[in-house]
């Protein structure tokens, strides 16, 4: 059920591109937001969280948001600069994830949603709704999204820094000395 709710956002994204009416797009965006909240609520409430769901949910959220932002950009309703600011956090998150796969020491990190990131997602969603229902507010929401995107990236970096194992000291030979644990 939860995976179906997440995957439904992919269908909603396709329908969003195909829709020509702002009312239909507004309904699709609201439905996307509702399915996102509902699958998260049900996963926590019923203890149904799965590793696949932890990947599908944010991936499908991002797919919907990116699709809507690109659609509005191609239609001239968002400038390319506004689109870049709206998707800043997402681009940095993808870069961080790719680096975590490339750097062996980072592979152990568990990339989980943080409150600041959730706020960025909410602001992105509100911006999409504003493009359809209250265009005069879009520039302010884009600016707020960009500011909080930077804050979210800083918050996440600090969180990862705190969870990182200590690095052995550097030695002139270029190798870290082997450190033995003291036996208790």
Write up what this structure looks like.
The protein is mostly helical. 72% of the residues lie in helices and 0% in strands. The chain contains 7 helices and no strands. 28% of the residues are buried.
Task: Please indicate the percent range of residues in DSSP E strands (runs of 2 or more).
Answer: under 5%
> Based on DSSP secondary structure assignment, what is the total number of beta strands?
0
| Weakly predicted, low-confidence segments | 165-184
Distance between the termini: 50 Å
H/E series, N to C?
Answer: HHHHHHH
Q: What value does the average pLDDT take?
A: 86
Query: Approximately how much helix is present in the residues?
Result: over 70%
Shape: globular
Counted by DSSP, the helix tally is 7
Biggest sheet architecture: none
Structure class: mainly alpha
Computed over alpha carbons, the radius of gyration is 20 Å
């Amino acid at each position: 059920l939860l995976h179906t709710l997440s995957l439904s956002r992919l269908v909603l994204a396709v329908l969003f591109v195909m829709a020509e009416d702002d009312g239909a797009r507004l309904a699709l965006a609201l439905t996307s937001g509702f399915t996102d909240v509902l699958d998260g609520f049900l996963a926590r409430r019923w203890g149904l969280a799965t590793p696949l769901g932890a990947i599908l949910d944010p991936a499908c959220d991002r797919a919907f948001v990116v699709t809507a932002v690109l659609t509005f950009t191609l239609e001239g309703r968002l400038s390319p600069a506004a689109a870049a600011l709206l998707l800043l956090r997402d681009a940095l998150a993808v870069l961080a994830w790719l680096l975590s796969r490339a750097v062996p020491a980072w592979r152990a990190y568990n990339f989980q949603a943080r409150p600041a990131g959730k706020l960025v997602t909410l602001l992105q969603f509100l911006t999409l709704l504003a493009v359809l229902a209250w265009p005069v507010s879009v520039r302010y929401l884009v600016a707020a999204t960009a500011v909080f995107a930077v804050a979210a990236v800083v918050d996440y970096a600090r969180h990862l820094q705190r969870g990182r194992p200590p690095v052995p000291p550097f030695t002139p030979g270029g190798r870290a000395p082997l450190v033995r644990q003291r036996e208790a």
